[in-house]
Amino acid sequence: MRPANIVTAIADILAGVAISGYFLKVTFETLTLDQTLPVVCLCLATAGLYGGGVVFNDVFDAELDGTERPERPIPSGVISLTQAIILGSYLLLVGILAAFSVGGINGLTGWLAIATAVAALVYDKWGKHHSFLGPVNMGLCRGLNLLLGISIVPGAVATWWWVGLVPILYIAAVTNISRGEVYGGTTNSIRITAVCYAIVLLTIGTVAIFHHNGWKVLPFLLLFAWMIFKPLRNAWKNPVGPNIGKAVKAGIVALIVMNASWVAAFDALSYALAVLLLLPISMSLGKAFAVT
């Protein structure tokens, strides 16, 4: 289920909630249970959607993993293929139902969850086998996840839908280099990823300046840049499998900092710091469980 990655998906939701303006006039002191419950349900939704998507990734890769990654749960015999299918289905169902509990049957939230689940399954089965469509497909899952958080405010998606393009580009860049985890990568693919990273940083910074919050977002962007570019530079100097793997892992975990940057860009500094607290949790889980 990649617990460390699920924490980054929760950060997507929290960033989306901030972008929607849901907490714009709310402080930690005035926060009520009625205001908190929809956010908790969306966090549960993304946990189910992400966990289920990753489980099905291992289901579809079970035969290949038997050769390339025999230590994974299914080929190692820790869990059977049937058990994994049941678990993945249950997680996706929980994710979709939790989303519908927020927006109702006629709301956009639940349908965004269904779209996310479909995008994840398409990637697991077909998308990852395409050199261009695969990274875009994986990025689409993250973009939809961010929109899932934004949809907590009816109508906010119509205003901020374009923000979902940023995680699509970012995750496409991470997925682009992840293909070299087993047998090594190329400096050309690393260059492409570096350019995409730079575009993401510039976009968030521009939004922050537009909202007159450039000084608030700067520390978050500097931390974000350091986390993603340092291992990427090492991979560029020596694009072997282990170095590529470290760059990919850093790119995934750094999503929390990227989301905290989004929150800071929309004038919610205390909320941004709260999102950033998810980083040590994800990093600790990343030591105990696989990230890629």
UniProtKB/TrEMBL annotation:
The chain crosses the membrane at residues 6-24, 36-56, 76-100, 107-126, 146-171, 192-211, 217-235, 247-265, 271-290. Its main location: membrane. GO terms for cellular component: membrane. It is a multi-pass membrane protein. It is found in: Membrane. InterPro entries: Prenyltransferase_related, UbiA_prenyltransferase, UbiA_sf. Keywords: Cell membrane, Membrane, Transmembrane, Transmembrane helix. It comes from the Bacteria. This is UbiA-like protein EboC. It comes from Chitinophaga oryzae. The gene is eboC.
